[in-house]
Amino acid sequence: MLNTDGDSLFDVLSAPEGKGHSLLSSLRVLSVRGSLSVSGCKRGGTGLVLGDEALSGETWMLCEDFCKDTTTKPSGDVFIACLSRLLDASNFHIQTLDVGCCNLTEGCLPNLQRLLAAPSTTLTSLSCDRNPGLRKGTVWANVLSTSGQASSPLVSLCIDIPLLVTEGDLTATVEAVARKFSPSTCPTPLQEFTLIGSVTWPSEIPIGKKMPLSSTVLTALAQQESTFLDRFLSHVALSFAGRFRKLANVSHQPPRTVFSIR
After folding, report:
1. How far are the Cα atoms of 69, 150, 180 from residue 184, in angstroms, in the given order?
2. How many Å apart are CA 46 and CA 70, to the nearest integer?
3. Cis bond leading into 255, ω under 30°?
4. Mean pLDDT for the stretch of residues 151-170
5. Which residues, at least 6 apart from 112, have a Cβ–Cβ distance to it below 8 Å?
6. For residue range 102-150, what is the model confidence (pLDDT) as tens digits?
7. Domains of the chain (ranges plus CATH)?
8. Which of 3, 16, 65, 248 is the S-S candidate for 213 at Cβ 3.0 to 4.6 Å?
9. Do the bridges between strand 156-160 and strand 192-196 make them parallel or antiparallel, or are there none, so unpaired?
């Protein structure tokens, strides 16, 4: 299980490997998916185990065979805070981070924002789906909006569909999407944007098939704008198509909707 005591976890993650470098300083890919699992999530592992093979491959995956029967559900916010501290100490060079299904909450937002947009960050791909605590409209919007800053190199994001309860939630999320895909404000738009959750697509987007975001598809999406979610998805499609033009595609394989470029 990920240690949720901040100082002791930081001591483990920042332990010197040699020549003054921490164990994590050579990593480029880090997945802790499911290490702090919430109900319905598949645990990706629960032991912080680093081996020579993992380090040499610059990839660290948690072992899947540890503590499978654990029922505790602490928050993964402390882990995000530790990564932020490692970033401040110049020991964070991770490019791909998977913290899906780690019970992250709104409390991790300040540290997650640092990982996304601090001048020294190297994070280009983030998976933070299946964390219900990040679905609140304003929280979701803050995550995406931060990645829209000029200092953020993020080009791939997998995240839950936001919880759109009010018009304010819709406005906040739509503005965040617009910021991330605006050529005037964001030099690094998402080239792959994966949304996790139940959605209803028009027949022009058959399940399991990648489709160009053509005018026909965009029109079909606009015509079914009857709910906040419909309007949100239509805006995402328009923003993606507006930035990438003929390169823009969408595919839907429940529960995943993926906007990507060819």
Report:
1. 50, 10, 10
2. 9
3. yes
4. 98
5. 80, 84, 104, 128, 143, 146
6. 999 999 999 999 999 999 999 999 999 999 999 999 999 999 999 999 9
7. 6-197 (3.80.10)
8. 248
9. parallel
